[in-house]
Amino acid sequence: MKALIVGTGGVGQSIAAIAKRRDPKGEWLEKMVMADYDAARPEELCARLDDPRFVAAQVDAGDPDAVAALAQAHGVDIICNLCAPTFNPPLLQAALKAKTHYLDTAMTLSEPHPTDPFHKVGKKLGDDEYALSPEFEKIGKYAFAGFGVEPGMADFFARYAADHLFDEVDEIGIRDGANLEIPGAKGISFGFSVWTTIEECNNPAIVYENGEIHTIEPFAELEKFWLPEGIGEVEVGHVEHEEVVQIAHNADRLKGVKKATFKYALGDEFMQAMEVFRSVNIDKTYKVKVGDCEVSPRDVVAAAAPDPNEIGKKYVGKTAAGTYVVGKKDGMERKVYLYQVADNKECVEKYGTQVVVAQTAFTPVITLELLAKGSFGSKPGDPKSGVQNPEAFNADDYVALMPAYEFPGGLLEIESEYKLAKDREALLDLAK
Length: 432
Known about the structure:
Blueprint: E1 2-6, H1 10-22, E2 31-36, H2 40-49, E3 54-58, H3 64-74, E4 78-81, H4 88-98, E5 101-104, H5 127-130, H6 133-139, E6 142-144, H7 153-164, E7 168-178, H8 194-202, E8 205-209, E9 212-216, E10 223-227, E11 232-238, H9 242-249, E12 259-264, H10 268-279, E13 288-290, E14 293-295, H11 297-304, H12 308-312, E15 318-329, E16 332-343, H13 344-351, H14 355-372, E17 386-388, H15 396-401, E18 410-414, H16 417-431
Parallel strand pairs: 1-2, 1-4, 2-3, 4-5, 5-6, 6-17, 7-12
Antiparallel strand pairs: 7-15, 8-9, 8-12, 10-11, 11-12, 13-14, 15-16, 16-18
Helix pairs in contact: 1-14, 3-4
């Protein structure tokens, strides 16, 4: 496997560190080209890795021809996009030009309805990406769309649950939260891309229900959700995220799921900050004149805020990402939460990056290994090419590899008719 990683920020750095740790002898990873617009960043990273398989390069992610030429020069099998989703269109085109596979961790951006954004859907997340599926099918390659942690791991969990844990699926809800904090610090901090976080927290949130996607105000319908491994109860609310679209796009592979949601625990202070951003328009991407310059308010915030990867290394605590599924099993209602919990201190010590970006990086590396070993497309019903989400593939190989990556998942059985029946059976077995 030869891979081109475009973007060597926190997630790109994590991918390199995880890949080296997982495959130190090059059993499946032959080369990983680490590329960035800032030439110094991949050079410093490759020097730290001290492994000839990791090669530094400079490239403009917005130039499809330059990226395609770099991919062809190194004979790579896949172009991995670890940039902001604004770069998805040119990097998708680069993969088509180079005739390689493609991978990203977030799909192409949405455009809210121009007159009624909180009640009507405009352009959805991923619409522009799905439209390119015929082009990837023509060259016989995959575009792995939304292969991070959320979206990504959570979507593999959705497919795994549908295949193994349920006879019918009513609802799939992605639930994410943490107890991360910086001791002694005040105010909000960004644990992931500042620009992208502002985008998804200020756009209309989306819900899939009864065959259609509709919009709702961000942070609407707050509810309590209990997260495992010491995190505890958090308050989660609706946020725009790809999983809702991806689940809807693959509903036939998920036993006809009727509803999909994404709810995130942000905390009162962060939600209030986003409301302030909206009220004074500093969440906006259009340019405004400041003196003799024209600047985007959101770009200014992203440039001025502390680097999420560096400030994130100061966090103490854990973060949980996972998939809440409700449906029927053996005629009884069942509720489960499939999850992965990661500790910030452990991620910094092992990979040199903070927990949120490290979690995001595992699925791309697992995907590279599975692709190298011929897993994708090998199971009955797997697509053979095109723009595909994790739900499109049998999830067994992915789930089986998680412990080998020191990235174990968990399964929480939530109180339900099915759980009570199984508890009674267990008690009867003990009595015997």
